[in-house]
Hints:
Residues about 1-30 have low confidence and may be disordered. It contains two helices and nine strands. The longest helix is centred in the first third of the chain and has 19 residues, at about 1-20. The strands form two sheets. Strands 1, 2, 3, 6 and 7 form a five-stranded antiparallel β-sheet that branches. A four-stranded antiparallel β-sheet has the order 5-4-8-9. The termini are far apart. By secondary structure, the chain is mainly β.
Amino acid sequence: xxxxxxxxxxxxxxxxxxxxxxxxxxxxxxxxxxxxxxxxxxxxxxxxxxxxxxxxxxxxxxxxxxxxxxxxxxxxxxxxxxxxxxxxxxxxxxxxxxxxxxxxxxxxxxxxxxxxxxxxxxxxxxxxxxxxxxxxxxxxxxxxxxxxxxxxxxxxxxxxxxxxxxxxxxxxxxxx
Length: 176
């Protein structure tokens, strides 16, 4: 009889805790503490030959965090594009995110991932505005005890300009 009373009491306490939100649960081991850098560029559409410039204002925030021997990075890209008639603006459009090892001199790339954002860049609203945003997934690399950082570049191949992919580099995250 005593065992049944204990079981009933445990069930009652658990139900009470669940309905009041008082149930103690294990917290995540540690949330990552990201360090970020934001940079902006105005990028001219070289394929446009009209009287007014067709410029894209692009802001990129690149963040990096360390957890043990790993560096994790991600980027947020926001763009304010011009008004275009319907049609293809780019032959290709992507953002490439890097994890780099911090050294004196050029920082070597340890890993990277390319995110195809062409369709997002070309998406417009009912007035023809090409404004949008994209956040990459996190990119993680085991870098050991060395310092690391996140870096990124917008890779655009403008339609009908004959120049291929142009690379627009943004400012890297702080070292972590």
